[in-house]
Amino acid sequence: MRKTTLLAAIAIIYSSNVVAQERVKKYEIGQFLIETGQFQRNQHTLSRSQLGSYNDQSLGLRNLASLGDTMRAVNFGTANDKPGFEFHLLFNRVSPSKFQQRLKLGLGISTGTLGSAFYRFEATGRYDTLTSSQNGTQTYIDTTYTRQLSASHSMRITSIQAGYEWHYQPEKRWHWYMGTSLALGVSTQSTLQISEYIYSQSTDNQNSNSFQSNTYDEINLSNPVTLQRLSGQFGLDFRISKKDNFFGKSFLRFNAAYALTAYQSELTKSTFNSGFGFHLGYGFKFQAISK
């Protein structure tokens, strides 16, 4: 009786372990992926108040308050970040379904412009009139004055990334997928570039005199820029060869993405952007390693 009870208990425990193992979500190291691409977004227009605290540090530039209300700002509108690079490991979830799920972990490096400004003032008019004491002839002196101030806040950001992808029939040479990912980053470089251009010209009936100057300065900002980006992707993977060799394990990736991005910096404070992006990638499929 005791032997029968013991065997029954062992059988129950063994059956429970088998069922539990079947319910465990197994993953295996699947692919290594390198991607490059960029996102389009609205550039933040730097205001004079934001630039004012850095004006005193910038060599040769006059106080921004002297620009006056006639100095007009130009909105830069949309802009593309410079192409960055992303490095990912993808882990396949073992499943008999036509949709294969993949966990994506990686590192990203990107550069771009967080905010820009361009201010311009131009005036033309009669500066003076000279009258000859001998014959009363009048000489008119006209003056043109132009002043331009431009600024750009650039950055280089390193981010850690995590995402999840759903691939439909990945065993085929062409297959499509969709996914979502989150990136958290901090700048390794954050700089403010300021340049000023001044041009003036005075003309009379016979002569013309002109003057121009260019001043440039670059300021390294002490506090880093932080980034949070949530994106969704839709794309295609293409296996380079049908054979079971190096090229048969290599694939190309094309995807379009839409991202919501938040930045925080000491210059622009908090800014929020959204925009589309496009990425190209190369991947290599490892031999399955069960986990």
Describe the structure.
- The chain has 291 residues and is mainly beta.
- It is built from two helices and twelve strands, in the order αββαββββββββββ.
- Strand 11 and strand 12 form a beta hairpin.
- An eight-stranded antiparallel beta barrel has the order 1-5-6-7-8-10-11-12.
- The protein has a single domain, classed as Porin (Beta Barrel).
- The protein starts with a helix and ends in a 6-residue tail after the last strand.
- It has helices spanning 2-23, 48-55, and strands at 27-42, 44-45, 72-73, 78-80, 82-93, 99-131, 138-168, 174-203, 208-220, 226-239, 250-265, 269-285.
Question: How many H/I helical runs?
Answer: 2
Structural class given helices, strands, pairing? mainly beta
Architecture in CATH?
A: Beta Barrel
The unreliable regions are 6-16, 18-24
Average residue-wise pLDDT: 77
Radius of gyration: 31 Å
Main sheet overview:
8 strands, antiparallel, barrel
Number of strands: 12
Question: What's the arrangement of secondary structure elements?
Answer:
Elements: H1 2-23, E1 27-42, E2 44-45, H2 48-55, E3 72-73, E4 78-80, E5 82-93, E6 99-131, E7 138-168, E8 174-203, E9 208-220, E10 226-239, E11 250-265, E12 269-285
Parallel strand pairs: 2-6
Antiparallel strand pairs: 1-4, 1-5, 1-12, 3-6, 5-6, 6-7, 7-8, 8-9, 8-10, 10-11, 11-12
Pick out its properties.
mainly beta; eight-stranded antiparallel barrel; 2 helices; 12 strands; 65% strand; elongated
Structure described in brief:
By secondary structure, the protein is mainly β. The protein has helices at 2-23, 48-55; strands spanning 27-42, 44-45, 72-73, 78-80, 82-93, 99-131, 138-168, 174-203, 208-220, 226-239, 250-265, 269-285. An eight-stranded antiparallel barrel has the order 1-5-6-7-8-10-11-12.
